[in-house]
């Protein structure tokens, strides 16, 4: 595992920003002095490879039954692609809502009801985005075996919500 190296590079590249005097507003509306912009990780090949390797190892260990890797749009998609490649598994991705044009899909890629899907998001704060993706996947007949992220704030409410809903 590359945990210490990943954390060090996240700080060094200012992917993690700390601003106690001017807190950041998260998508959930929550205010925090810490902002983690994991979308930037795709710009650093060594960092994204360490992240993908660690996620792949985690998924292989915790979800050995996984047959598909899914990315939660948008920031989870590149990481899911890299992990799927490392695990030699198919990949799908899940949008927050169905498209309003074309075929109107919310999920891109193919899966069957027998597949065991592990969804990857870049960050879990409240769990809302990943739960939305779980619900959409299950609504389309998929079975979500688990979820993973690069980073989480370990908020008690998020852990409880995920436990309750999954």
From TrEMBL:
Top-level class of the enzyme under EC nomenclature: transferase
Signal peptide: none
Name of the featured protein: Orotate phosphoribosyltransferase
Keyword Magnesium appears in the UniProt entry: yes
PANTHER family attached to this UniProt entry: OROTATE PHOSPHORIBOSYLTRANSFERASE, URIDINE 5'-MONOPHOSPHATE SYNTHASE
The entry's keywords: Glycosyltransferase, Magnesium, Pyrimidine biosynthesis, Transferase
Organism: Lactobacillus gasseri 224-1
Alphabetized GO MF terms: magnesium ion binding; orotate phosphoribosyltransferase activity
């Amino acid at each position: 595992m590359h945990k210490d190296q990943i954390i060090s590079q996240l700080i060094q590249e200012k992917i993690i920003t700390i601003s106690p005097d001017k807190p950041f507003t998260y998508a959930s509306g929550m205010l925090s002095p810490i902002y983690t912009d994991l979308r930037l990780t795709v710009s650093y090949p060594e960092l994204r490879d360490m992240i993908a390797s660690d996620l792949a190892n985690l998924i292989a260990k915790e979800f050995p039954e996984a047959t598909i890797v899914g990315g939660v749009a948008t920031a989870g998609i590149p990481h899911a692609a890299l992990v799927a490649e490392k695990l030699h598994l198919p990949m799908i991705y899940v949008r927050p809502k169905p498209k309003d044009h074309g075929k109107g899909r919310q999920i891109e890629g193919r899966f069957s009801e027998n597949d065991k899907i592990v969804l990857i998001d870049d960050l879990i704060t409240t769990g809302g985005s990943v739960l939305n993706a779980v619900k959409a996947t299950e609504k389309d007949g998929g079975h979500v075996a688990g979820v993973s992220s690069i980073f989480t704030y370990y908020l008690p409410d998020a852990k409880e919500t995920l436990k309750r809903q999954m």
